[in-house]
Amino acid sequence: MNATLLLIEDMPSLQMVYEAVLRRAGFQAVCAGTATEGLKKFREGRFGFVLLDLMLPDRDGLDLMAEMLAINPEVRVIVITANGSINKAVEAMRAGAYEFLVKPFDEVRLISVIENAVATARLPVATASSEPANGRFHGFTGSSPVMVDIYRKITSISRSMATVFISGESGTGKEVCAQAVHETSLRSRGPFVPLNCGAIPSDLLESEVFGHLKGSFTGAIADKTGAAGAADGGTLFLDEICEMDLNLQTKLLRFLQTSTIQPVGAVSARKVDVRIICATNRDPYVEVRAGRFREDLFYRLHVVPIHLPPLRERGSDILEIAEQMLVAYANEEGRSFRRLDPEVARLFRHLPWPGNVRQLLNVLRNVVVLNEGESVTETMLPLEILHLSEDRLTPVERSAPITGPGLGQLVGRPLAEIERMVIEATLAENAGSVPKAARVLDVSPSTLYRKIEAWAKAG
Fold it and tell me: What is the DSSP letter of 259?
């Protein structure tokens, strides 16, 4: 691929500045001052890289970019926009631009973006299909139309550096989605580094993201590489992004603008090559309006939005997931389960699943560990499912005391197991929110986080 850039900028003074910066960095540039001239040179030269100002005198930059991509889908288009028109840059990214620069930007940022574009152009093209194979797609299970659309979107952005903003209820698979974006991208050989912003105390979050030097604060007994540094060459996934402290949001915005990180206690910054994917189970627009999330940061992150639907809206995907994972768990635990009873299948299709896929998997694991057989029957289902299915009962049945199967499932079990059942059921009732569940259970959120982490380590 030709490494010479086509620079389309209508201001001669900026042409000279950009061209000088590129030359010092070892790049060559062919300049054009209008869309017409730029398109003519693009056709003649078949450039692999284009630096395009979106505000041109004779034509809209987005239309020009679309025509260039139609001529050569392999071209990396880096768009330039003014600070007041960032929405246009976001629109360009969604239309296929590789990256965008917001004026004013420094030469370090410019060269960093171009170097990343050149480096990724040498990597093999992602070949992931947008259609699920046997209902599976990079960690996802399900072939419903809404999920196939998500698979297609993930595949379509595989060649881009665009920041991805994943939203959806707790338990819908936001980290699975982030990993799928990473695995189908040109960065798949690099690291995938997840960081849960809601599980780390605010006073330690900056160190976790950007790292720190030994002695920079009390307890810093050694140098630490933060998540952003560890993700160099790959993808940084920031889960529960709306939990991030406002002061750290400012530093994250600077990181996005400069591609540099400065560990706590360091006197200088260093450049990293990182793609950002973030996720939240909150409504980000509500958080912005309430002043809890910076509007400028939101629009820098909300380039390619992906909304994951709740499990209750995915139709037959519920049974696809249940049947696949039932067999997988049975094989892990040495059990013989292979199917759901028809009544259980019908129940699963009509339950609200407030904890979504995570709740469904917990139910299946509970059934496999505590029961034996080839088919899952209603009597094997845990207490939380009996509670969720109360809407099937008559008013008389609903008002009856909980005895028999409900209480009977608790009798004879270890107290620690009952505690876990109650905590998981409370989390499910509160859409996976640890702070809300903690308030209901009258314990501190840190207590629940410790227990959840201990369960995860124990398998």
Answer: -
